[in-house]
Amino acid sequence: MTSREHDVLLWGATGFTGRLVADYLAANRGARTIALGGRNRQKLEAVRRELAASTPSFADAPIVVGDATDPASLAAVCESARVVVTTVGPYWQHGKELARAAATAGCDYCDLTGEVTFWRWLLDELEPVARRTGARLVPSSGFDSIPSDLGVAMLAAHARERHERPLSETRLVVTKMKGGVSGGTLASAMGIADLARKDPAARALLRDPYSLSPDRARDLSNDGPDPMNVRHDADLDVWTAPFVMGAINTRVVRRSNALLGHRYGREFSYGEWLSFGPGARGFAMASGANAALLAFLGAAALPPTRKVLERLLPGAGEGPDLEARQSGFFKIAINARMVGDSTRLIGRVEGKQDPGYGETAKMISETAFGLLEHPGDGGVLTPAVALGDRLISRLRAAGMTFVIEELP
Ligand SMILES: NC(=O)c1ccc[n+]([C@@H]2O[C@H](COP(=O)([O-])OP(=O)(O)OC[C@H]3O[C@@H](n4cnc5c(N)ncnc54)[C@H](OP(=O)(O)O)[C@@H]3O)[C@@H](O)[C@H]2O)c1
Fold first, then answer.
1. Residue 30: how many CB atoms within 10 A of its CB?
2. At 178, is the secondary structure helix, strand, or coil?
């Protein structure tokens, strides 16, 4: 592994999110060697020139050209690097061959997928390969699903170490958030909607709360299908609607619990919600937002309305501008109960930039640096299992908040 040419290779440096990840990697690379990869040399050279304007020593950063449809070029990409970070999505469409090349080459890998279907494909196709070669594949290393996965892991460790208790009912509430969306993220969501419309097996997979379980038959069954309705959170006294990213995050968190031998608890149950505040106003806003989300999903599924949406929403390479990214932020409260103890635990996870872009660039880059520095066994892993509290420490040092409060 140490003889590989590049410490970290960013695959997809020319995309909207890839460009932000390139910025973070260049600015924080220290003594690490970083290569830029993608399908278009001229665009990659333009990205390198822009990066060199603020980081002059980046002017001779290596460029690696390949194509998501050309497995030989992807094998060369993964054989040249110790860790490959990929922002080439939708992953179901463009990500499979790169992940296969990484697993085969024993190259550590992290991505930004929010697609349960892609995750399941990785597990079914590549888990045995990655175990054999020692490659650690860590999908969902951005806003989906690091705050959820590491936030719950942090609370479970606290409950175990300070109270010698497992967790029971645990709810993540996004208390405040401001952020935008890019073309690739929308394309990924539309891709999932298309797959669900055409393929009954994909629909069943998306409905299954334990779809990423390492052993479905022996996993827990504490959680049912995702909620569809608004709910009053009695602990916080706010009205909440189901959080759209819960569809991926809850599966990742449940997979972490299973991979860790149900260390979070055998009574552990988990859901994700978005807060709209207290009282009648909170109820009206939560109901309105929930209805709007259901209407959007309905419009995305029907070809005529889908065409209108595609004209109105950001396309490939587009996303929130610098001002929107810098004024973005997120605040999450994870409320957990312990078995046989009335103490309430609250885990707070917060970021100071747009969650899906500024903070996501930080999260996936720190995951890559963590993989580089901390060895471990191969497989298809969650962020909590691959790096756990080492990644929490890295993200704290990079400005994110991870704290725990106790309420009697
Ligand atoms: N989990 C999270 O929190 C989170 C946050 C942000 C984004 N994402 C995900 O990140 C992904 C990218 O989103 P985005 O908005 O940044 O997309 P984007 O701007 O459209 O970028 C897509 C990238 O893929 C490259 N690409 C497309 N086809 C390729 C091929 N055949 N071979 C090699 N490269 C190819 C593009 O290269 P060219 O420049 O040459 O076209 C570009 O670099 C999406 O899947 C999105 O869901 C997730």
1. 6
2. strand
N-term to C-term CA, the chain: 49
Closest residue to atom 13 of ligand 1, CA basis:
184
Q: Count of residues for the chain? A: 408
Tell me the three state secondary structure of residue 34: strand
Cα 15 to ligand 1 centre (Å) = 5
Helices (H), 80-115: 91-94, 96-105
| Prediction pTM value | 0.97
**Nearest by Cα to 185 from 51, 360, 328:** 360
Residues with Cβ within 8 Å of 199's Cβ and at least 6 positions away in sequence, in order, are: none
Q: pLDDT band at residue 400, thresholds of 50, 70 and 90? A: very high
SS3 15: coil
Q: Helix or strand or coil: residue 13? A: coil
Tell whether ligand 1 has an atom less than 6 A from the beta carbon of residue 142: yes
Which is nearest to 250 in space by CA: 269, 228, 271, 266?
271
pLDDT at 2 over 70: no
Burial class from Cβ neighbours inside 10 Å (0-12, 13-18, 19+) for residue 303 reads exposed
Nearest CA to ligand 1 atom 15: 184
Q: For residues 286 and 277, give the distance between their C-alpha atoms in angstroms, rounded to a whole number.
A: 8
What pLDDT is stored for residue 308 in this prediction? 86
d(C-alpha 149, C-alpha 254), whole Å: 9
Q: Smallest Cα–Cα separation from 8: which of 388, 398, 365?
A: 365
State residue 349 phi and psi, 5-degree precision.
-125, 125
